[in-house]
Known about the structure:
Number of domains: 2
Protein name: Glycosyl transferase family 2
Number of strands: 9
CATH superfamily of the largest domain: Spore Coat Polysaccharide Biosynthesis Protein SpsA, Chain A
Shape: globular
GO molecular function: hexosyltransferase activity
Keywords: Transferase
Distance between the termini: 51 Å
Domain Glycosyltransferase 2-like: 8-117
Pfam families: Glycos_transf_2 (PF00535)
Amino acid sequence: MDSVRVQILLSTWNGERWLPELLASLERQTFQDWQLLIRDDGSTDQTLRILLKWQAAYPEKLAGLLLDGSHLGSKLSFSRLVEASTAPCLMFCDQDDVWFPEKVELQYTALRRLEAQYGEESPLLVHSDLVVVDQGRVLQTVSFWDYRGFEVNQRKQAYLLNNVVTGCATAFNRAAAQLAFPLPVYAMEHDRWLALVCAWFGQIQPLPHPLLLYRQHEDNEIGAEPATVNGLSERVEAWSQQADVFLHRFGEQLDAEDYKLVEAVAGLRHLRGWKRRQHILHHRLFKQGVLNNVALLLFA
Length: 300
C-alpha cells in the first residue's frame, strides 16, 4: 500500500489497558485506505507486545513502528511521527480513545473537499466534536465542545489565546504538516500549534458531530476538565512564549497589523500586575466568553 491516502499517527506510552479497544475500533473503519504509523514513548508495560501482535495480524496496516527508547512526552512524540509521515492526509490518534467506524471516512472526505476549494498547497485542518466517557466508558457528556463552551468558528486571531482543536479529533493535509512541523520547543501542544498555523495561513473546518469516544481518566496527560483560574498566570506565560516562537518562524509572512498583534501577545510574559492588565486591555487580547476575560484580568 505504497500510495496509502491516510496515515494515522499513534503515540503510545504504557497503554496496555487501552490499546486493544482502540485498535479494534480502527479495524472497524468504513474507509480502509489507511495505515498506522506508531511511535512508542518508552513504554515499560505490555504495550510493545500488543503492538507486535497486532502487526503480525495486520502487517499491511502498519506503516512503521518507531522505537528509539526515548520518553519525549506526547507533544514531541507526535512531532516525530509527523516528520516521519508520508501520506497526503494525517490523523493524530491517542491510545485510550475509541473511534467511531465512520471517523476516517468523514474526516478524509471533508479534507478532500477543502483541498478542492482552497488547493492542496494550503494548510488545511478539519476537526470534530467528541463524546467524553470515563475510564469504564461511562458517558460524561455527549459534546466536548458544549462542555467546554467552545465557539469553534473563531477568527484566526483567537487561536493565539484559545484552542478549540483536539488532536485526536483532527485530520490535516501534507501542506499543514510541512508548514507546522517540526514542532518548536515552546509550542504549547502539538494540536494547539497545528491549529494556530492552519488558522493563520490556511483553513480550519469544524465538523459538528462527534466521531470518537474521548476517555477521561487519571492518566490523561491533558484531559477534558474545564479550565480554571488556577495556573492562569502560567498559561499566559505559555501563550506568550508560543506567540514569540510563531513570530520568529512566520514574522516575515505577516502584514504590519498582524505582526503587531502577535508581538503584543509575545510581550505579555515581560509584564506583571497592572501593566499586564493594561497591555491586555490596550491590545484587546481577549479570550472566548465574558467570564474568561474577567478571570484573565483578575488573575493573569
